[in-house]
Amino acid sequence: MNTSKTIKKMSTIKEILPILEEMAPLAYAEDFDNVGLIIGNENSEATGILVCHDALENVIDEAIAKNCNLVVCFHPILFSGIKKITGKNYVERALLKAIKNDIAIYAVHTALDNHPEGVNKIFCDTLGRLCQTSGS
Q: Domain limits at 44?
């Protein structure tokens, strides 16, 4: 997977979204999944991008320390509806901290899994000739 687009220094999050969607098209995501911009103001100027596996509280702390207001994670922090945000669990604490610090969270999960040159292809390229990808 190769994208020729570069992110200019003074981009808004909204200007970065098409680049992320080119790398992991939202149309490839499974119906159950929650991919794309999960929280955040797309009109905010992007100060930095932190890439991670899961947007946990320590990742949000790292984003704050590194002045990154866009966290691109593999797994979505929210899979289904949430009824309260009181800070009683790690998801709620991460969400509260991200919102308080104007940090956007974007997830790629199955959009990247299902990309023809995504996660499965990387495994097969690494494992060699014996590897085949499943149709599902």
A: 13-127
